[in-house]
Amino acid sequence: MDRGTTRSTRLDRAGSLLGLSLGGFFDGILLHQILQWHHLLSLVDAVDDVSGQILFDGLFHAAMYAIAAAGLVLLLLSRRELGSTGASRLLVGKVLVGFGAWHVLDSVLSHWLLGIHRVKLDSPNPLFWDLLWFAAFGVVPIVFGLLIRRRRPARPPNGHAAAALAALVIGGGVWASQPPAAAHSAVAVFRPGLSDGDILNAVQQSGGSVLWASRGVWAVRWQEPGQARRLYRRGALLVSDSVVAAGCLAWTQA
Fold it and tell me: Does pTM top 0.70 for this prediction?
């Protein structure tokens, strides 16, 4: 395999990994946080409490960060190839294929084979939403990506597509990690190695108070909104106010 083929393969892999990570961030941001339709393991009986669901959502996001980081490293190593004719077009096409592949894989494995969650759990017809997601965000991006890769370049190459893609992936990761700005309460998962005393100090330093704690997951409330993100500077891996967690938090205030 010559050096040019190696660079081409590396750029293709970078696009695939970045597309996969964008697909995961898209699902996590839209379905877990904004619409709050499901958690990663919503239908797994062994994980039936808030702390477990939030923990595995956090691990899912951590995996997406790892995939995105690998894609960004490969993109950086392939920066010289981005100056060749059609490189940006091929990269964007590969990202779309990777994005669609994530949703196809998620549908087949998570929704139908493993049954760990469905797209919209409270729907009377969850299969409709599964198929809609499969087609709209799986098949369609793959088809568009393949069509883009087959087209001939219509303008001189530049690095704008790669820069925009890197910014999109990094921005998606940052967005996925942020709790809503108006949240008064949230559940937080802290990194391993922190003692209960360390976590209590972290919560107090953020201006919050502990509502409950279970298996490394802590429910925290603040008098002023927008304080939850402070926990990230004090050892938190994930801070969320998902609809399931919000229900439990409301119960603790009864």
Answer: no
